[in-house]
């Protein structure tokens, strides 16, 4: 009869007897492999965080990741970045570490939050494209060589990525110059609001190309011009315009021809009837070649310097006039009808009726501004008819004035030139004379003409523009009075009326 042996003792003895067997290391390896699989699956599921599990949002995020990776390895990116090009040349079969691309490429910083390597690899494999190729190294080198000294813990895998046509790309980019890329560049404006990210702009431009079966690599680079008020080092945000570099001059010329700059498209003639094209027509999307945009930029900078010089001279004149106690009133200006811009029913907008105003109080409002500028033009029957609309945003020290006719524009600018006026507070409707001991700057007015006037009115709805044209035609023949002399005339007439009343009482 065999003796009774408890199970626990039997298992313990079995494990003790098998301590030197090769099965124990295998059990440890299985546990490590299981933990690695769980960590990798957790990283792969990071793509599902955005969108709260919705399939459409997951697909959109995957498309964004694939588009941004394609831009980071585009022909222009390889041509412009010598470090990236050196990595490809010295790499094995054109492969480069994916972590290097994530930390080095500026376009990848537009993805927020930044995806993990496993998520990117999953997206590239799911897209099944002929552009990119990824692989995983079984034996990864040291983390210092791959990830640098500041590498975080818990990042798994030695992933590498490459362009499948990397050898052809290196050979072709050696023959390209900066002028070649400039010829393929375009400036786009009035981008629909739902496509104002780097990845969305690339897909939007791709959808507008009428060529069938065109590669996603048609967009080589997207540059968002920074705003003057952006902080140093801050990532620029899309404000409705961007500079795009395309893969060929044919695509650049075709897009500029289908979406002209000076003529607003109102239908989908000769354009594929896609949802993106319909949105482009709705928002007034237009394109101009890079060369023409550079010329307009030079003209704008020269005009800006002229305005700054004129503003500096006006401030010096204002400081000199404030020190003089006796100021001679200028003669009332007489404007001939031939000197004023004419507006008829065929005009796209009222000519000469737009004024840009600087140095207003930042805490003011539209009602106060209307009263402030309406004092320069007075009419007996219809008060405040000279100022048609005040285009002002809270917190700004500038605004636009839409006047009823070009005659009001001349009288308004002449009045504020002859009478330097500043706003002492946000509710100041009369204005004060700026003095040398205060920080008040005189209000300056600039008549907007030419291309700037056309660009402004193009953003105004058609119905509002038509009403402004009709109002400019009806008020063109009215002879308004100037406020500088209107104040004196109004006060003299009021005194005369009071004197006549006193004489009647005496009688």
What would the keywords be for this entry?
Alpha-Beta Plaits; four-stranded antiparallel sheet; 507 residues; elongated; Arc Repressor Mutant, subunit A; alpha+beta; 3 domains; single chain
Quick overview:
One of its GO terms (biological process) is telomerase catalytic core complex assembly. With 507 residues, the protein is an alpha+beta fold.
Break the fold down into its secondary structure elements and pairings:
Layout: H1 7-17, H2 23-44, H3 55-72, H4 75-80, H5 82-90, E1 96-97, H6 98-104, H7 117-127, E2 132-136, H8 143-147, E3 159-163, H9 166-173, H10 178-183, E4 185-189, H11 198-208, E5 219-223, E6 241-246, H12 249-258, H13 275-283, E7 286-289, H14 290-322, E8 354-358, H15 366-374, E9 377-378, E10 387-391, E11 399-403, H16 406-418, E12 444-447, H17 450-458, H18 462-474, E13 481-482, H19 483-506
Antiparallel strand pairs: 1-3, 2-3, 4-6, 4-7, 5-6, 8-11, 8-12, 9-13, 10-11
Region (Disordered): 9-29, 471-507
Domain XRRM: 348-507
GO cellular component, one term: ribonucleoprotein complex
Structure description:
The protein is built from 19 helices and 13 strands. It has 507 residues and is of the alpha+beta class. It has 3 domains: 47-138 and 156-173, Orthogonal Bundle (Arc Repressor Mutant, subunit A), CATH 1.10.10.10; 178-227 and 236-293, Alpha-Beta Plaits, CATH 3.30.70; 335-490, RRM (RNA recognition motif) domain (Alpha-Beta Plaits, 2-Layer Sandwich), CATH 3.30.70. It has a 4-stranded antiparallel beta sheet. The chain has a 4-stranded antiparallel beta sheet with strand order 10-11-8-12, with helices on one face. β10 (387-391) and β11 (399-403) form a beta hairpin. The chain is elongated, with a radius of gyration of 35 Å. The termini are far apart. Mean pLDDT is 76; it is low at 12-53, 152-156, 331-335, 379-383 and 478-501. InterPro entries: La_xRRM, Lar7_xRRM, Nucleotide-bd_a/b_plait_sf. This is XRRM domain-containing protein. Residues 348-507 form the XRRM domain. Residues 9-29, 471-507 are annotated as: Disordered.
